[in-house]
Amino acid sequence: MTMQQEKKIIVQRKPSWIDPSYYLFNFILPAIAWLPKQIGELFSLRTVVRILGGHGASPDKNEKKPFLPDCEHFTTEKITHALELIQSRKPLLNAAGERRIVLFFGWLTAKRRHIEKYARLFTDLGIDMLFIRLFPVDIIQPETGTQVVADQICDFLRQRRKYEKLLPFGCSGGGYLFCEVSMKVHKDPELLNSVFSKMVGQVYESPVDLNQINIAYTHTITSNPRYFRITKFFVDWFMNAFYDSMTRHYVNAAQRMYKSPVRAHALYIFSDNDPMSPYKAYESIADKWRAKGQWVRFSVFQHSNTGHCRNFARYPDKYKEEVYRFFVDVGFVEQSVVDRVLVKSQ
Predict the structure, then answer these.
(1) Are 198 and 165 within 8 A, CB to CB?
(2) Which of 28, 65, 128, 157 has its CA 20 to 30 A from that of 10?
(3) First and final CA of the chain: distance in angstroms?
């Protein structure tokens, strides 16, 4: 072997499991590069949306079919990804041909069968229903979600002036969305005078306590006492981290709820065992409203579980009687119409 050949010899040493550099380059450094990405993904808005909503967490804005199909009782018109107009085939009309409508703000996990029951509840009386569908991503990203939907509702109210009487009906987080609508309407004097003056009442089913929405979020993820505290810790951190883009909107909505979104009498429907919507938290709100001359009625149903937005499914007859009685008391519908519908349903 010549000297020139010796210079070309490369000595390769087989890595040993005893050698620390083997673990440094093959395990430790890749793990250090991988971990921040996973932590960032864990606390991203995308992950939170998946946890809270799973399938259907984000709206399909290209979907053309309405959430509820037409049937013998009503027709459905899809307006936007979040708004559907459900019209009774036998509407109540005044002398001017004006109709009546419920602005129905649904809850996050509502299925088609749930919304259909509410559609029948209203359209059987000859009342139309604007169904506002709520998605987790809209609540978690208010500036591109609930704010946009609130604008769409205001546009609907501006363009469709054929309604004699209106009544908002908010379920769970739907009450928050109506507060967003209310704040926008109160900045538009023309819309305030022409539309909100026609609202004869307001109904809230299992409304989330907006001052403790972190607890509601936590219960959406888990109700297991073993995991509740640690989950709430991360939810609190998340809401503090995204205060400007998310949490401040909940704070503003809570203030609007205390002031009353609309100056009208109210019906609150609760479960007696619902940690997401404790009825005692709304007693102070009711007192403030009563001081303004509004009367507020509480209807509390008994459940062995949480019963969140399950009152109609669990007690259909009693629920229908409570809602219809409120409609009559505030002048939204006549007693003779209610009697006719109740007799027909027996």
Answers:
(1) yes
(2) 28
(3) 107
Could you report the per-residue pLDDT of 55-88, keeping only the tens digit for each? 455 566 666 788 888 899 999 999 999 999 999 9
Pairing mode, if any, of strands 83-88 and 128-132? antiparallel
Q: Which of 203, 173, 207 is nearest to 281 (CA)?
A: 207
Please name the amino acid found at residue 202: Q
Q: In angstroms, rounded to a whole number, what is the distance separating the alpha carbons of residues 152 and 240?
A: 29
Cα separation, 312 vs 320, in Å, equals 8
Q: CA 172 to CA 205: how far, in whole Å?
A: 6
Phi, psi dihedral angles at 99 (to 5 degrees): -105, 180
Residue pair 241/45 in contact by the 8 Å Cβ criterion: no
Which amino acid makes up residue 207?
P
Calculate the CA dihedral of residues 224, 302, 324, 331 and round it to 10 degrees.
-90
Alpha-carbon distance of 245 to 255, in angstroms, equals: 17
Please check whether residue 297 is in contact with residue 330, taking contact to mean a CB–CB distance below 8 angstroms.
Answer: no
pTM of the complete model beyond 0.85: no
Q: What would the 3-class secondary structure string for the chain be?
A: CCHHHHHCCCCCCCCCCCCHHHHHHHHHHHHHHHHHHHHHHHCCHHHHHHHHHCCCCCCCCCCCCCCCCCCCCEEEEECCCCEEEEEECCCCCCCCCCEEEEEEECCCCCCHHHHHHHHHHHHCCCCEEEEECCCHHHHHCCCCCHHHHHHHHHHHHHHCCCEEEEEEEEECCHHHHHHHHHHHHCCCHHHHHHCHHHECEEEEECCCCHHHHHHHHHHHHCCCHHHHHHHHHHHHHHHHHCHHHHHHHHHHHHHHHHHCCCCCEEEEEEECCCCCCCHHHHHHHHHHHHHCCCCEEEEEECCCCCCCCCHHHHCHHHHHHHHHHHHHHCCCCCHHHHHHHHHHHC
What would the two tokens of residue 8 be? Answer: 């070309």
Instruction: Determine which of 17-31, 178-192, 287-301, 322-336 has the lowest per-residue pLDDT on average.
Output: 17-31
Number of Cβ within 10 Å of residue 221's Cβ equals: 16
**Residue whose entry in the numeric block shows the structure tokens 């505030």:** 330
Residue 299's identity, in one-letter code, is S
d(CA 258, CA 261): 8
| Residue 50 in tokens | 């998946």
